[in-house]
Amino acid sequence: MAHLAKADFRTRLQEWLPKLVLSPSIAAMLVFVYGFILYTLYLSFTDSRMLPSYDWVGVENYVKLWGLRAWWTAVINLGIFAGLYITICTAIGLTLAILLDQKIRGEGTLRPIYLYPMALSFIVTGTAWKWIMDPGIGIEHTMHLWGWESFQFNWIKDREMAIYTVVIAAVWQTSGFVMSMFLAGLRGIDNEILKAAQIDGASNWSLYRRIVIPLLRPAFLSAFVILAHLAVKSYDLIIALTGGGPGRATELPATFMYSYTFTRNSMGIGAASAVIMLMTIAAIMTPYLYAELKEKK
Amino acid sequence: MRGYLGRKAAAIAALMATTSMAQAAEVEVLHWWTAGGEAAALNVLKEKLEGQGIGWVDMPVAGGGGEAAMTTLRARVTAGDPPTAVQMLGFDIQDWAAEGALGNLDAIASEEGWDAVVPAALQRFSKYDGHWIAAPVNVHSTNWVWANKAVLDELGIAQPTTWDEFIAAMETVKESGKTPLAHGGQAWQEATILDGVVLSVGGVDFYNKAFVELDPEALGSDRMKEVFDRMATLRGFVDDNFSGRDWNLASAMVINGEAAFQIMGDWAKGEFLNAGKVPGEDFLCFRVPGSDGAVSFNSDQFAMFGVSSDEAKDAQSTMAGDIMSPEFQIAFNTVKGSVPARTDVAKDDFDACGQKGMDDLAAANESGKLVGSIGHGHANRAAVKNAIYDVVTAHFNGEYDSATAVEELVNAVESAM
Amino acid sequence: MAVADQDTAVRTGLVTRVFIYGILLVFAAFYLLPLFVMLTNSLKPLPEITGGNMMALPDTWTFEPWRQAWSSAQIGVEPTGLKPYFMNSILMVVPAVAISTMIGALNGYVLTKWSFRGDKIIFGLLLFSCFIPFQIVLIPMASVLGKLGMAGSIPGLVLVHVVYGIGFSTLYYRNYYAVFPTELVRAAMIDGAGFFRIFWRILLPVSGPITVVCVIWQFTNIWNDFLFGASFGGQTQPMTVALNNLVQSSTGVKEYNVHFAGAILAALPTLLVYIVAGRYFVRGLMAGSVKG
User: Fold this and answer.
1) What's the pTM value of the predicted model, to 2 decimals?
2) How far is CA B175 from CA B258, B406, C235, in A?
3) Residue range(s) in chain C whose domain bears CATH number 1.10.3720.10
4) A275, exposed or middle or buried, with CB in 10 Å at 0-12, 13-18, 19+?
């Protein structure tokens, strides 16, 4: 009898306690994430300027948005930036992880050196790189002082090249983090598989290409998602490094959205650009989430 | 009570009613004078208030000429917890007044006779619907040229009085291998130059027609093309490394004698004074040649937000009165490089450039040649101002030629209205 | 967790090894360059910076900029330095990290060991919340905080950071617990252990590595946040806001040496966390989070 009652109680407990534990998170998420997204969606259809207003104007803000040159610049810049940033970070991260996995003396020292930029805030990263890349005081100036007169590195002042300086600073900040994800992946691979392959006479190159890298698939996926969302959200770095300039050559969607919402008093257009950004993120995330959730049957 | 309610005022008023008001008499001040001399100057006001038994709660948020502070303000107002006083510029004050978020300073204003001593062009921003809503701290003017006297003397250049002389002088400097015009490539700095250039091309009438009334014909006129041509000429006198440079580094170029001129508002003077330079001896200050007595100004003001308790209102109005007092106006403006926001302040404490600025301001006020700065949000609302920034900066960076810039200007202003 | 006894995967000759070390050191220089620039310039007197070589070591070494940044630089109307803001940041970061990590651990536990219909969808929704750009939530968040009476206070900031931190902390713990043998949990259940008891006695003791990862991640993000701090900080502004106020003077001489010293001071806690806990970081990542 007692046993049954207890079992019954446990079943009921099992039913409601986990859900109860989860429910504050769900409630917070529904309000603070999805509620606010819906709110932004709504604002994008209103004539909000300085503060939210609730006068419906239909798709006018979207029409205006896509008619703005600055928005197109921002979207194209995001394409360039995200493409290069993700590729270079992944390449550097993977290379460093593989090299660091070769029983390197001093790994314990090198790893924090690669990782520490992730700990710094945008003001630090931005101002430091702004200095280093400024032709008047930075590397170019230093090289001139050291006698290499013809050395030129003025990308940050060049409308065409400035976006690449943002890539450099961003890669500096996160590639070490990507390295540690790959390193973790490498360390997680069962050595027996590698040994077997080596006995079969596989060369180093083909060992990595055919066995190790495919096994790192989850790490690639995680790295891609983290990098992609950092790229889309990039705001701080631009402000600290170039302020969106020269001219508006390094504007990204996140800086565009902030400036229209808060400094240009065009909250409606700002909300419309936010909705487009969210849709982009959703488009990137959905396949990942799908894969992630299917795997764990 | 709060009167002149705008469209969304009811909602905001409801929010404010729930706000917990300051218990002891104190003022909370949101501003972006966060560092160095100007923050120290603001401390004068703080101490003055403390002497009157009013506490000062400091809320500094720096960044982007007040952009970060304005974001913070929006969050505070939305949360129903606005600060007592907020540093603000030009049309922003009017926009907040239109939202019904600001308080009323009429009592102290009439008691102290502000109407008589504050220039009308400033009152345009400090008053809304005939009521005082903000206390102006200073008047900056933007159409100044700062010049290194030693460089000019060495090259035998006299202080230019016309635009052509100005250009000729810069040609001479260029030949000598120095940089003629020190400039930092940030949108607002380019727009600051624009203020002076527009006045030099078309005078006050054209300035007002094109940039205050936003008349499409004036915006698309040949005169406007002339404006952009002159901007392009100036671009030719700037060094290659200008992009993104802070304005004070540009000032430093003039101070060190690397460059001859800088077109910048009177806040630049502080840099020269800090470097131990003497106006008239080491450096010159004069209006952009061709300005013809016109002064383009911007004015920092403290907008007073709606507070409900009587005690808070009293503290707020005491603060407004202190800001307008001649002692504070002198103490603050001698540090900041600007001139007092009232015309009846004694000039003795100001240096040669400051006195000249005060004379120019008074004269321009008399003759109706005092205009709001385009580049600093005193000619138009934020959306239009930024639309103008976009075009001017794209043109200055070589993205547009002058004819395209004129077209783009008309489009940009139209779509921002 | 067998980091130490990993065999070298590749058999390498001397030339290759020199090459490998070469590349690793070049990258180390790349990563260290900005820190080097900041450190050396924070130890120079101002004229040496404005007139000299950015890369050069100081001619005159001075700790004055550090002292100024910490205790006497003008921040707002008062010359307090960064010191008073440091405490604000600590008071905000510690509870925010603790709460969001704890909630993340419980969520991860529920989502993997007490699965129910729709749990995957809930996890998906939670995960998506990691990616929301924070600029868009400012205004609605302000109005919610205002209604809760938490605007402009440290509890308000803690709430905001917890809410937007749950996504990542849940992700970390869920992936970590997913590979933990469910049989052990079942066995404990049959032995009569309850929901919290199983969590406390079985899962928590093995959660060390992932907790390190999660704490480092949350600590860094929350410590470095500027947007929320400036908007909702009120009179308890965190250190990033103060640093921004220090370096963004609109007029006056820019004291770069003080700015750099301030920047390093503001970054010190996160740097310490990375350097001290960095080696557990890879271990923690390895122990679950990247295995999908």
Assistant:
1) 0.84
2) 13, 31, 55
3) 83-291
4) buried
Chains touching chain B through at least 3 C-beta pairs below 8 angstroms are: A, C
Angle between helical axes of B67-78 and C138-148 (0-180°, round to 10): 40
pLDDT in tens, A79-96: 999 999 999 999 999 999
Asked if the Cβ–Cβ distance from B39 to C74 is below 8 Å, we say yes
Rounded to an integer, what distance in angstroms lies between the CA atom of residue B325 and that of residue B347? 15
Instruction: For residue C73, list chain B residues with Cβ-Cβ distance below 8 A.
Output: 35
Q: Which residue has the tokens 């004698």?
A: B257
Count of domains in chain A?
Answer: 1
Q: Which amino acid, A17?
A: L
- State whether B386 and A263 contact (CB < 8 Å): yes
Residue A237 included in any domain: yes
From CA A26, how far away is CA A34, in angstroms rounded? 10
Q: Do C244 and B72 touch (CB under 8 A)?
A: no
Q: Using a CB-CB distance cutoff of 8 angstroms, which residues of chain A are in contact with residue B94?
A: none
Determine, yes or no, domain membership for A54.
Answer: no
In the numeric block, the tokens 């300027």 are attached to A49
State the angle between helix axes of B310-324 and B326-336 in degrees (0 to 180), rounded to the nearest 10.
60
Match 């940050």 to its residue by tokens: A156
How far is A204 from B238, CA to CA, in rounded Å? 56
ipTM score here?
0.83
3-state secondary structure of C271: helix
Domain C83-291 has CATH 1.25.40.20: no
List chain A residues with CB under 8 Å of B394.
Answer: 247-248
- Structural domains of chain B ordered from first start: 9-140+299-357 (3.40.190.10), 141-296+359-416 (3.40.190.10)
Question: What is the extent of the structural domain holding A105?
Answer: 69-265+274-295
In angstroms, rounded to a whole number, what is the distance separating the alpha carbons of residues C30 and A171? 11
For the segment C171-206, what is each residue's pLDDT rounded down to a tens digit?
Answer: 888 888 887 888 888 888 888 888 888 888 888 888
Residue for token digits 């969302």?
Answer: A229
Is A286 a domain residue? yes
